[in-house]
Structures are given as structure tokens and as C-alpha cells.
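Ticket #4471: complex job returned nothing on first submit. Input attached below:
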Amino acid sequence: MKMSKESEYGLMGLVQLAKQPAHAVMQLRDVAAAASLLEPFLAKTFRKLTVHGLLRSHRGRERGYSLARAPHDISIREVCEAIEGVDLFQRCIFWSNACSDAEPCPLHGMWRHVRPQLVTLMERLTIEDLAKHGTSLSRDNVASLVSQAAADAAAANSSSPAFTRKGAIHVR
Amino acid sequence: MKMSKESEYGLMGLVQLAKQPAHAVMQLRDVAAAASLLEPFLAKTFRKLTVHGLLRSHRGRERGYSLARAPHDISIREVCEAIEGVDLFQRCIFWSNACSDAEPCPLHGMWRHVRPQLVTLMERLTIEDLAKHGTSLSRDNVASLVSQAAADAAAANSSSPAFTRKGAIHVR
DNA sequence: TGAGCATTGGACTAAAAAGGTCCAATGGCT
DNA sequence: AGCCATTGGACCTTTTTAGTCCAATGCTCA
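Support reply: We reran it on our side without changes. The output follows.
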């Protein structure tokens, strides 16, 4: 797990495009200016997103970048994976590690349970969500998505016997 | 958020001590050998844990390290914070960033909801859990703890109106 | 056909963090 | 006083991230 600044750049750039009319083509410099980003660095990021099919690039008269798909169809997960690598969410919580079931880290078990929830959430959150509800601010729908992801995970694990602890609260 | 190899070393070292009889004093080299860790690097880690009051160091006849508290009283959270810094769980998901409500990152809102769950989980998971149920393997109690943390968060957010989405499942 | 221009692709540098090592000093015991 | 593991810090190397630069490409319009 590592989410670097480049992922943030990618998200902010895409959100900027999502705020334009559908299918709008926007030049790099304008995106960078509108989102207060460094143009050369954004260029690097946008190239990755283009290669991974999230952006479409245009040359000639109407040049620049446009979203390859509708904003509600581009998940945060895709964006981050395109930039950080497809194994982003398969990796250990200790980001430098490549631990496996055979050679597990101390938190391997814990992470096996948390990771799917995080992935589900990132899968359901889209560029449109970020663009509509403010690039930044916390909103109720996020809370709802978190609950959903948690519920999904709980349902998936409901077969395993629970154990109790001081103050334990059981779902279902 | 960043969990480096040093945290892993800290956890593995503590777990090793937790597997000994209570209050046992164990020399660094023995801990390192038993857990297959590099002694010089573990030394660095143990020093941090000693300063933060999780380990007690002993000189003279019975020298070495011992746990400062009972294994069930040392949470994973404490260990990680001692090593990575107290602001570990206060930080942005983009680990290099110091974003705030005033200057939020694109996932600021999302992270505000996820972070508390993660912290709660790390708070409830202890060295004893890791030592008892295998340093590594996933176990039912972890699943239970995850559910608890999720339930807690859901309860905390239950006041906010939910919104629906294709395939949404509501808890409660 | 050729000029214009933004994207493209890659190489490249610099800064920061992580990972790892080493050594002199310390302090409690025997 | 001597032993010896902890202590504390400095130090080095490697990796990763961040950021820059430039020549090449390809589409359009004049």
C-alpha cells in the first residue's frame, strides 16, 4: 500500500475534467492552471492515465485531453492502480514488503480482512463523486459507502465463528 | 499513512518476547535469532520501543529486554505509533501530504471515515493476539474485530442520512 | 506541403526517506 | 575493576519519490 503524490495529481486532474461539459477536451496547461498543479508533473501523470485508457489524448486542432469514459464510470481504484501499479491493493500493509501466505508478516491476517473493504470502497467511489461533492469535503454518501463495504465484508465473513471480548459488539 | 519495515521488526520482536514466560528478560541477540531478524536493525527498533515505554531494558547480571506491560495490554497501534511517529494515524492517506480540512486532498472526505475504523482496529488488536494466534495467520477473531470496528463506525455515522446506489446494502 | 503546437516518450537530476551498519560510551553486576 | 549488553549517535547505501528537460511525433490548418 502506497499512495503517492502522483495519485493525488491524477485524481485532481481527472476531477477537473469531470467538472467540464461531457466529452470536453482540455489542454494540459489549462487543467494544471485550473487545479493549481505543476504542469510538467501533471504531464507525466496524464501520460500514465492515457496509456491505461482512462484519458484520451487529442492532437491537431482541438488538442488536449478528455475523459475516456463517463465520470461515474471511472473508479478511484482504477486511477490509483493505473498510477501506482496494478498490485497496489494486493500488496502488504507494510508497503515495502512482498509478504505472502507462505511468508506472512505479523499483520498479514489482519490485513487480509481490511484490504477487501478498502478495495470495495475505492471501487465504488468514482471521479463523479469527487467532482460533484467537492474535490475534498466529507459527505454523507461516503459514510454510506463505507457502511456498505463493511457490511459486504461482514457478510462474507459471517460463516466464521465469532469470539467475544470486553465490549464486543456483534453485527448480526 | 506509512508502515515501514521497522514497524514490522518492532512487532515481531515484541511478539517474540510475548511468547516467553511472563516478565522474561531476553537478550537482543536471542530475540533476533529466534525471530530471524537482523540484530543491528532490531537494536535500533528496540531502542525506540524502550524510549516509548513499551519495553524495559536491563543491564548487569540479567540483561536484555522485557515487556514493560502484559502482552494483552500492548496494542498494535501503540507499537506502530512509537516507531513511525505519533501522527501516523492522523496523517493523510497520501502519506507525503499534510492535508487539512482547510487544504484537503481529493480523498480527504473518504479518509476521514475510513481512518477511525482502522485506528479502532489497531487499538484493539494486541501483541497477545499476534503471539497466541500465530504471528501471521488470519483468524476468526480478527474478522470479529473488524466487524466491531465497522459497527462502531456505522453507529457513529448512523445519524447522517444514507443515500442509495445501484446494489446498495444498508446496515441496520 | 509545411508550419505550428501540444502531446509523447524517455532520460535525467535532485531530494528525501528507508534500510542498514558501526563504534565509543554507559551503567549495573560480579 | 572488569565484563558485557544496552545506549546513542553518527554514518553510509540504496531505493523511491519528486520534478525537469528535450527531441520526436502526429494531427490540423493555411
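The first strand of chain A starts at residue 55 and ends at 58. Closing as resolved unless it happens again.
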